[in-house]
């Protein structure tokens, strides 16, 4: 089943992720979550990693990816 961002004419944007902002380098309507592969409309994009240049669907996915990339974050002090 296609969602509204995968229909005819819908293109995936290319983004440069910055601190607190992002720059569209190639126009499009959405980006794909680096973890889930789900479409994220650009106007709903709120979570990304500057270091890995990856977008995330939501805060939970972003946190889990950060812990996956940095296992030492799991340790409680």
Describe the structure.
The chain has 77 residues and is of the alpha+beta class. The longest helix is centred in the C-terminal third of the chain and has 11 residues.
Major β-sheet strand ordering: 1-2
Q: Compute the number of helices.
A: 1
Termini separation comes to: 46 Å
Compute the average pLDDT: 90
User: Mind summarizing the main beta sheet?
Assistant: 2 strands, antiparallel
**Strand elements, count:** 6
Structural class determined from secondary elements: alpha+beta
Strand content: 25-35%
Low-confidence stretches: none
| Rg calculated over all Cα atoms | 14 Å
Using the alpha-carbon principal axes, give the shape. elongated
Secondary-structure element string: EEEEEEH
Write the layout of secondary structure elements.
Blueprint: E1 14-18, E2 21-26, E3 30-32, E4 39-41, E5 47-49, E6 54-56, H1 59-69
Antiparallel strand pairs: 1-2, 3-4, 5-6
Describe the structure concisely for a colleague.
This protein has 77 residues and is α+β, with helices and mostly antiparallel strands.
